[in-house]
Structure formats: structure tokens, C-alpha cells
Specification:
This protein is mainly alpha-helical and 149 residues long. The protein has a single domain, classed as Four Helix Bundle (Hemerythrin (Met), subunit A) (Up-down Bundle). Helix content is 56%, strand content 4%. The chain has a two-stranded antiparallel ribbon. A hairpin with a 5-residue loop joins strand 1 and strand 2. The N terminus is likely disordered.
Length: 149
């Protein structure tokens, strides 16, 4: 699946059709799953975004706020999935999206989080710049809650 790099190490071949097919299938499944999760929140908002009637307006407002936060995180995830699918199509999948880096994203990272577009170092730096904490991999937690980064 790879070619010999420096010092005899094997570098992953991100253009390998089997790898790309497997990644595309994972991403398409994730896209469907996230879409279903987003759709599941519409009953909370009611038809056409109108609130459901509830005599306990405080509880309803809290539920709607919580739903909005979750839907926002799911939309971030969906955007990352769509970006990764586009990267497969334009042959940049597996390469860090940081224009100053362009290193290969570790294969283990892509296996765990196929929508990752940054290498671990750039992801960490991005989160620090956004003030999301140090070493907590906040964005990866939103994008790939089951992944261990």
C-alpha cells in the first residue's frame, strides 16, 4: 500500500484505490448518520422551526438551546465530511490542508477520523489559536467522538 521512504520506512499511498474506496464508504456512511441525527432534532423545534407548545417554557427554552448547540456541532461535522469527500475527488485526501504544512496525515488518524483534514500538529495549533484549550483535541471530539487522537 505504500512506497519506500527515507531510512526504509514505508510511507502510506493515499492514492491507493482500495484505501480511497474504504475512506469514501466511511465518509458516506458518516454523512448519512449525521444527516439523520440532524433531522432527529426537528421535532424539538417543531414544524417550520416553530417551538412546540409546552406549559413549562423554561424547560422548553433549555431543550431548544441544547438542541441548537448539538445541531451546530453536527453541522460542523457534516461540513468536515463533505470537505473530506471533496478532497478525495480532487486528489488531496490525506494531505494536511494547512498550506504551510502539506504533510501527510497519519494513516491511523485517517482510519479513526476519516474527515480529518489537518495533521495532528496543525490541528493542535489551530485549536490553540482558536482558544479551545491545549491538548484536548476539541475539534476532533466534535468531528470524531469515537476516535482516540
Amino acid at each position: 500500500m505504500g512506497m519506500k521512504g527515507e531510512k526504509g520506512t514505508v510511507e502510506p499511498d493515499y492514492s491507493n484505490p482500495a484505501f480511497l474506496k474504504r475512506s469514501r464508504e466511511k465518509l458516506e456512511k458518516a454523512k448519512t448518520d449525521v444527516g439523520k441525527k440532524i433531522a432527529s432534532f426537528f421535532p424539538i423545534c417543531g414544524p417550520k422551526g416553530r417551538p412546540q407548545t409546552n406549559p413549562d417554557w423554561g424547560a422548553e427554552a433549555t431543550a431548544q438551546f441544547n438542541a441548537a448547540v448539538i445541531v451546530q456541532a453536527l453541522c460542523v461535522n457534516l461540513a468536515a465530511i463533505l470537505e473530506a469527500l471533496a478532497r478525495i475527488e480532487n486528489n488531496t485526501y490525506g494531505i494536511c490542508a494547512n498550506p504551510l504544512c502539506k504533510q501527510q496525515i497519519p494513516l491511523d488518524r485517517l482510519e479513526a477520523c476519516p474527515q480529518a483534514i489537518y495533521c495532528i500538529s496543525c490541528q493542535h495549533n489551530l485549536e490553540q489559536r482558536l482558544g479551545l484549550g491545549t491538548g484536548h483535541w476539541v475539534l476532533d471530539t466534535v468531528l470524531c467522538p469515537k476516535a482516540k487522537t
